[in-house]
Specification:
Helix content is 0%, strand content 43%. With 67 residues, it is mostly beta strands. It has one domain. The chain has a five-stranded mixed beta sheet, with no helix packed on it. A hairpin with a 2-residue loop joins β4 and β5. It starts with a strand and ends with a strand.
């Protein structure tokens, strides 16, 4: 499956957040606004993008199959 990116309308702070749908085997793209969402459609796992994570920019799992 190709990664599918859905752009959201800009928020009051004029930042564009995105929703991304992919498989767990897909590479999650980087370079989005903090708070963007990625959902793995095969596992149900949900990730939020953090531009300033512990390891630099990263996707952080916040819910899903083993929560």
């Amino acid at each position: 499956m190709a990664v599918r990116i859905i752009n959201r309308e800009p928020q009051l702070d004029d930042i564009h957040y995105v929703e991304i749908y992919c498989l767990s085997t897909d590479d999650k793209p980087i370079g989005w606004a903090t708070g963007s969402v990625c959902i793995e459609v095969d596992t149900g796992d949900v990730y939020l993008y953090d531009e300033e994570g512990d390891s630099g920019s990263e996707w952080v799992k916040v819910g899903g199959s083993d929560e």
